[in-house]
Amino acid sequence: MAVFGNQSEGRHAALTIRLVSESEESRAAVRTIIGGIDDPPLQIFEGVPESPTGSNGDRPSSAPSDVVMVVFNGNEEASLAYLQTQAESAPRPMVFAILGERSPGLMRRVLRAGADELLFMPLVQDDVVRAFLKISETRRRAERHQGGIVISLTSLIGGVGVTSLAANLALAMHKRMNKRVALVDLALQSGGMSVFLGLDADRTILPLARLEKKLDSIQLESALTKHDSGVYLLAAPKRIEDAEIVSDVVIGSVLDLMRNLFDFVFVDCGTHVDENSVAAWERSSDVLYVVDQSIGATRCAWRFIDLFGKLGIKNAELRFILNRHDLRHPITEKQIAHTLARPVYARIPRDDKSLERVQLSGDDLWKFAAHGTLARAVDDLAHRLAGPEIEPQQTSGIFARLFSAVSARG
């Protein structure tokens, strides 16, 4: 079977792209552009307008494509007819028309035939990536379970800022986007989230691990600590030895329930891989692996890619966050991405001074450096994770939702 593309092990399912043109030369020109796209992952099949199964019979009509790209470079009537057939098919793919000229008449006819997107030769890769990402993100969110979104942060090496980034993302999502947000500290032995937030958390996850009956919303509420910002924390046990009591079954039940109560749940998985962290990843829409510009961090990230692929987690997108980024550092973002064979999803600039002020003052980043480079970068990442289609909601408070969930279960 002739397949072109960049699908790789352990990644979210690739978008299937059908590239249709009467001209092999035109297909090759388009293939060169889209074949170099790493994110989102793609599988590319080729065909001609008269051949619904592809030039090599490589993709039967019973397996629909996510995107059909029709190149107009010769017989316009045949291309228009094929495009309209695809637009009227069920299930319907997204239909892209690639035009060789910016003719208003042809553009009008193509749009009336059902094209969702117009692109022009020569293709600009950034334009194609933007269109593909919209489709990929929409599909990924449609595959999620109903309820809130769980996002896990992890790293195999300490000191790269997993805890601070998780906390700041939660604060940004709540303060800047008016979302109901909770944090879960799964770094059960270190318990660093309480320290970072300046909380003396008497309430922890430990009572939930000792329950002899099914977890409910009232029990969960009793284990949460509210930060001054309005973000809730499910803290790690105070004693190191109590970490062993918390099982993956408990974590699964907790996260499943928290998704019904919060818009976003950020999980600090720390640096230790065990059944608890896997339970969190299985319920996450995104797993953010945090690296810095060190050889050790990059090497551990490369090992994590292999592990994550072997775990076979299908519904979580593994993304790499370059934290504490310094433009003057000899190890560049490009070198890290090349080593991992994965793109860096976001860069968070190094700002030790602001983080130190956060720790010493007990205030959050947005109280004294809301317009600084660090706060802006965290805001940008939070908006990307939320997605463009998600709007701030004006709804009842968290405790109203807690009691509503109890009523629904009762």
Descriptive overview:
It is a single chain. This protein has 2 domains: 4-142, Response regulator (Rossmann fold, 3-Layer(aba) Sandwich), CATH 3.40.50; 149-405, P-loop containing nucleotide triphosphate hydrolases (Rossmann fold, 3-Layer(aba) Sandwich), CATH 3.40.50. The protein is elongated. 42% of the residues lie in helices and 18% in strands. The protein has 410 residues and is α/β, with parallel strands linked by helices. It has 16 helices and 14 strands. The longest helix is centred in the first third of the chain and has 18 residues, at 125-142. It has helices spanning 24-34, 76-87, 104-113, 125-142, 162-177, 192-197, 206-209, 217-223, 248-261, 275-282, 295-311, 333-340, 352-361, 365-368, 373-386, 398-409; strands at 4-5, 15-20, 42-47, 67-72, 94-99, 117-120, 149-154, 181-185, 225-226, 232-234, 264-268, 286-291, 317-325, 344-349.
Distance between the termini: 54 Å
Specify the CATH class of the largest domain.
Alpha Beta
Q: Give the class from helix and strand content and strand pairing.
A: alpha/beta
Rounded to the nearest angstrom, the radius of gyration is 24 Å
Biggest sheet, in brief? 8 strands, mixed
- How many β strands by DSSP? 14
- CATH architecture field of the largest domain: 3-Layer(aba) Sandwich
* Spatial ordering of strands, largest sheet: 9-10-8-11-7-12-13-14
Strand content: 15-25%
Number of domains: 2
Unreliable parts = 7-11, 51-62, 389-396, 406-410
